[in-house]
Amino acid sequence: xxxxxxxxxxxxxxxxxxxxxxxxxxxxxxxxxxxxxxxxxxxxxxxxxxxxxxxxxxxxxxxxxxxxxxxxxxxxxxxxxxxxxxxxxxxxxxxxxxxxxxxxxxxxxxxxxxxxxxxxxxxxxxxxxxxxxxxxxxxxxxxxxxxxxxxxxxxxxxxxxxxxxxxxxxxxxxxxxxxxxxxxxxxxxxxxxxxxxxxxxxxxxxxxxxxxxxxxxxxxxxxxxxxxxxxxxxxxxxxxxxxxxxxxxxxxxxxxxxxxxxxxxxxxxxxxxxxxxxxxxxxxxxxxxxxxxxxxxxxxxxxxxxxxxxxxxxxxxxxxxxxxxxxxxxxxxxxxxxxxxxxxxxxxxxxxxxxxxxxxxxxxxxxxxxxxxxxxxxxxxxxxxxxxxxxxxxxxxxxxxxxxxxxxxxxxxxxxxxxxxxxxxxxxxxxxxxxxxxxxxxxxxxxxxxxxxxxxxxxxxxxxxxxxxxxxxxxxxxxxxxxxxxxxxxxxxxxxxxxxxxxxxxxxxxxxxxxxxxxxxxxxxxxxxxxxxxxxxxxxxxxxxxxxxxxxxxxxxxxxxxxxxxxxxxxxxxxxxxxxxxxxxxxxxxxxxxxxxxxxxxxxxxxxxxxxxxxxxxxxxxxxxxxx
Length: 628
Hints:
- By secondary structure, the protein is of the alpha+beta class.
- It is built from 22 helices and 20 strands.
């Protein structure tokens, strides 16, 4: 699985340079407008030139993007990739063979630059030439590699060019089944974040087309925008899936949700459906059922392949610059062949998906979001800066992160220890799923908020603040302190914090610290953290009158050192529920004047000892304890 973990990083790197392609598609589409009528007769030529130049320099863009993507935006790697491409273009361009750089060449040089940076970024040379050590050595090294690579390509390029064209003919000879196989594999690889690897081969490598200017372009995507009348078969069939099938699944999930949760689920999944329809971002919907019904995802992958097969057999050719959403559909329709047929096909696909998923969810009792409290997705409502530190804690803190990147829908992490990941906490904080790829490579799916989350997490890592992080002291449901049926706690007269409604009769420590007080009835306990915060845990309301071991039994004593998750008190849940006003258990900081800011996780179901339910930033940094 370590190999797959490395591939997922490469897949993310391939995605980075593709963000420039929508600009090229928009320019090309705008060039078709009647600019003469508004007195701008030269505008079509300018727009077309802007589009063509992006595709012309696509190999350079891929070289730079892949190098940056593999190294966490290391400038030395990016510079090395550009130098490598300049050397390659200069040497091969002067050859009689007239070799042109391709996206594949750009990707190869980008990979070489990225690997070279990771290998030599800490290189130490003798002191008198150390100026060329470390990252500065990378462009120099890649320059020599590019020189040798370019010389070698002069000899093999004619054979390689013929091979790419032949490969395109072989794939085309597979007919509809080849397109089906691509569609099926593409959807399966989405799970691992590797779909960009297989797409890169079909979209940028297979098949060749000579433009009117005499230039050769390779791959389904560049050929489509260059005017190749046979290109687009590996893109057209994705439109019905992304524009209709995934939104239909979202509506099925909404309509099968519980009535009390349906308003929130409706809001969340309407946004997810709209994102899929407009932009082709499908993971927020797909990951809503992937982990609870993987067999249903396989059916979805098979159906996606069949849809692509159908569009192929009907002779439909369409393309996109970013993804198969409605925006790309409209912008690129003027280049399509029978593209209008994708709309009626999509409507039929949407109906089939809606009926199938509603039946499957109900028949097999699939716990999709909204059918049980713990599986719903949250509306982030602009509180990413508050959740990011909690997400950081659930990942294991900054000391557990080796590398952190993000793509459109997921955080891509390499961690020191996968075992310290708190999956329940991550789900509680809005993650649709967590995928372990081995070798410390982990993906956390947060939908289109992933890049914002990464940015806020980086801020939290670099921020010089004393921050104390709290775990859940019991299994049950977290509620706002204001909902506690006691005016003293609800009015925050004792202190600020949160409360819990327990499902089990166990109270554990939420923090690292020292037990400073245990009440005689053992219904409440006080803990002082190493930062000086005094935390009060009070089991139930009006429970001070419940004396005797049949109600509460402490397993620690005053002066004991405790850590998060350590058992503090056992209690008889049924007897306390029967003889108290409420089971609501406040967790408050009694010296709240020492706290500068508060952050709370969503108020929902939590596990005992689950991390990231609350965090506070102190007014002054004291160090120690479980801080970030």
